[in-house]
TrEMBL record, chain A:
One of its GO terms (cellular component) is nucleus. This is Proteasome subunit beta type-3. Its main location: nucleus. Keywords: Cytoplasm, Nucleus, Proteasome. It comes from Anaeramoeba flamelloides.
Automatic annotation (TrEMBL), chain B:
The active site is at T81 (nucleophile). It comes from Anaeramoeba flamelloides. Residues 45-72 form a coiled coil. Belongs to the peptidase T1B family. GO terms for biological process: proteolysis involved in protein catabolic process. It is found in: Cytoplasm; Nucleus. Component of the proteasome complex. GO terms for molecular function: threonine-type endopeptidase activity. It catalyses: Cleavage of peptide bonds with very broad specificity. Component of the proteasome, a multicatalytic proteinase complex which is characterized by its ability to cleave peptides with Arg, Phe, Tyr, Leu, and Glu adjacent to the leaving group at neutral or slightly basic pH. The proteasome has an ATP-dependent proteolytic activity. This is Proteasome subunit beta. One of its GO terms (cellular component) is nucleus.
Length: 192, 287
C-alpha cells in the first residue's frame, strides 16, 4: 500500500502443503535495495528460485551500471523474466513496492504469472486471500497516509483478510519503507 | 427438495395401541423429488457446497458412464473440521473445533459441532452440516419416544444402531454424515462412530475430520483408561488445539464437553489461537 512518500508491504509467513501447515517462518518479501521491496506469493519453489535469480541480476546490474536500480526498472525486469517463461511459467504473483526518484514518490506494481504489469496508485494485493484483501484494503485505504498510520492500516487489513482465509496466517510481517529506511515488524496472528 | 412434512405426519398418525415398530422407525420417510430416476438425481446433488460446481457440469454431461458418476458421487471428504471423543474410567470427553470452510474461504468460525441427543448423549457433526443436524435431531426425537414408551432410558448402543439403520437406507443418496454418538448409560461410558456409508464402529477413542490425523497424534500419545477428569479434559483440549494449528481447515474455538452418570456438561469454550499461544508460553516457562 502507498502512503505519503512511503510504502508498506505486508505478508503472512505460512508455508503449507494443501491443508497441512509445514513451516511458520517462510519469508516471501525481499529487499532489493534501499528503495525497492519485492514480495511474491505462489509456488514456494518458484519463489526461492526467483529470489536467487533476481539477487544475481541485481548484483550484476550494480557492478555494470555502478548505481542502484530504480523500482520502475526493476518491475520491468521482473515482467521480462516472467514472460521469458511464457510457455512454462513460474507460478507466482509478484508485487513490487518502492520509492521512485529524487522526491521519493511511491511506486507500486503488480504482475500476473506471465508478466502483465499494472501500476495502481493505492494498493496491490496477491495470494490465496487476495479477494478478502482487496475488499478490506478498499475500505480502509486513504490517500497521503503518514508512515505510522500506513503501518496501522496495512496491519489491520492483513489480519482481517488472513482470518477469513483458511490457507493464510500462522505469523505475519510488515515492512514500511520511507526515505529514512525500512522498518520491519512482526504481528501476532491467529495460529489456527 | 426434502421436507419434514412427511416425517411429522407419520408420527402423528401412529397411536399407542398401534405400536408397529415397522412404521415408527421405518426408513424412507424423507420425500424424494417427483421426477424420473430420483435416485440418480439425488446422487448428482451431493450435499457439500464445494462439490456443487462440479455437479452442475455433471448434469450437463449426463451421458457419462454410470461407473464414473458413481465414483464421483462417492468422493466426499469430511473437510473443514476436527472432532474427537474418547471414553475413560470416569466418563466420556467430547472436544470439537468450530470452523466451517467452503473451499478455502472461511465461512464461519462459530459453528456448533456438538448436537445434544438427550441429557446424557451427545452427537458430533462432521461432513454435511445440514445432514448431521437433521439426523441427530431426529435421533433425539426417536430416543425421547422410546423413553416415554418403555419407561427406561435408551442405551447408547441402541440409539446408535437406530441411526445406523436409518443412514444405511439412505446409502448412496449423497448424504455426508460422520458423526460420533457419545454417552453414558448403564454399561458405563460408550462411544460409537456412525457413518453415512453405513458403518457403525465401537471403540474407546475416535477423531473425525480433516484435522483428525493431527488430533490422533496427540490423543494416542496421552490416552490411558485411568486418567483423572482434569487430565482427560486437558488431553481433549490439547488434541483439538494441535489439530487447529496444523490443519488449515480447522480452527475457531475449542469446545470441550464431559459426559458422566449425571448427564453432559459443557466444560470450556476457548479461542483456538489464544489457547495455542498459552501452551507455547507454558512450554517456554518450563524451559
Amino acid at each position: 500500500m502507498a502512503g505519503k512518500n512511503c510504502v508498506a508491504i505486508a505478508g503472512d509467513t505460512r508455508f503449507g502443503v494443501r491443508n497441512q501447515t509445514v513451516a511458520l517462518d517462510s519469508n516471501r518479501i525481499f529487499k532489493i535495495n534501499n528503495r525497492t521491496l519485492f514480495g511474491m506469493t505462489g509456488l514456494n519453489t518458484d519463489i526461492l528460485t526467483l529470489r536467487e535469480s533476481f539477487k544475481f541480476q541485481m548484483n550484476l546490474y550494480n557492478l555494470e551500471e555502478e548505481r542502484e536500480i530504480s523500482p520502475k526498472t526493476f518491475a520491468h525486469n521482473v515482467a521480462q523474466t516472467l514472460y521469458s517463461k511464457r510457455f512454462g511459467p513460474y507460478f507466482i504473483t509478484p508485487i513490487i513496492a518502492g520509492l521512485e526518484g529524487e522526491d521519493y514518490t511511491p511506486f507500486l506494481c503488480a504482475t500476473d504469472l506471465i508478466g502483465a504489469m499494472e501500476f495502481p496508485k493505492s494498493f496491490v494485493v496477491a495470494g490465496t486471500g487476495e479477494e478478502s484483501l482487496m475488499g478490506v484494503c478498499e475500505t480502509f485505504y486513504k490517500e497521503n497516509m503518514e508512515p505510522e498510520e500506513l503501518f496501522e492500516v496495512v496491519s489491520q487489513c492483513l489480519l482481517a483478510a488472513v482470518d477469513r482465509d483458511a490457507l493464510s496466517g500462522w505469523g505475519s510481517v510488515v515492512h514500511v519503507l520511507t526515505k529514512d529506511g525500512i522498518t520491519t515488524k512482526r504481528l501476532r496472528t491467529r495460529k489456527d | 427438495m426434502f421436507t419434514l412434512g412427511s416425517v411429522l405426519d407419520n408420527d402423528f398418525k401412529s397411536t399407542i395401541e398401534d405400536f408397529s415398530f415397522e412404521t415408527e422407525f421405518s426408513t424412507n420417510q424423507l420425500m424424494l423429488p417427483n421426477i424420473e430416476k430420483p435416485f440418480e438425481f439425488a446422487q448428482s446433488i451431493i450435499g457439500l457446497e464445494k462439490d456443487l460446481q462440479e455437479n452442475e457440469n455433471q448434469l450437463m454431461f449426463h451421458q457419462q458412464k454410470k461407473e464414473e458418476r458413481k465414483e464421483r458421487a462417492l468422493i466426499k471428504g469430511y473437510k473443514g473440521t476436527t472432532t474427537l471423543a474418547f471414553i475413560y474410567e470416569k466418563g466420556t470427553v467430547v472436544a470439537v473445533d468450530s470452523r466451517a470452510t467452503s473451499g478455502q474461504y472461511i465461512a464461519s468460525q462459530s459453528v456448533q459441532k456438538v448436537v445434544p441427543v438427550n441429557e446424557y448423549m451427545l452427537g458430533t457433526l462432521a461432513g454435511g452440516a445440514a445432514d448431521c443436524q437433521f439426523f441427530l435431531a431426529h435421533l433425539g426425537r426417536i430416543c425421547n419416544l422410546y423413553e416415554l414408551r418403555n419407561n427406561e432410558k435408551i442405551s447408547v448402543a441402541a440409539a446408535s444402531k437406530l441411526l445406523n439403520n436409518i443412514l444405511y437406507s439412505y446409502r448412496n443418496y449423497g448424504l455426508s454424515v460422520g458423526s460420533m454418538i457419545c454417552g453414558y448409560d448403564t454399561r458405563g461410558p460408550q462411544l460409537y462412530y456412525i457413518d453415512s456409508d453405513g458403518s457403525r464402529l465401537k471403540n474407546s477413542l475416535f477423531s473425525v475430520g480433516s484435522g483428525s490425523p493431527f488430533a490422533y497424534g496427540v490423543l494416542d500419545a496421552g490416552y490411558r483408561w485411568d486418567l483423572s477428569k482434569e487430565e482427560a479434559l486437558d488431553l481433549g483440549r490439547r488434541a483439538i488445539c494441535a489439530a487447529t494449528f496444523k490443519d488449515s481447515y480447522s480452527g475457531g474455538t475449542v469446545k470441550v464437553y464431559h459426559i458422566d452418570e449425571n448427564g453432559w456438561v459443557k466444560i470450556s469454550d476457548d479461542d483456538a489461537s489464544e489457547l495455542w499461544y498459552r501452551y507455547e508460553e507454558k512450554e517456554k516457562k518450563k524451559k
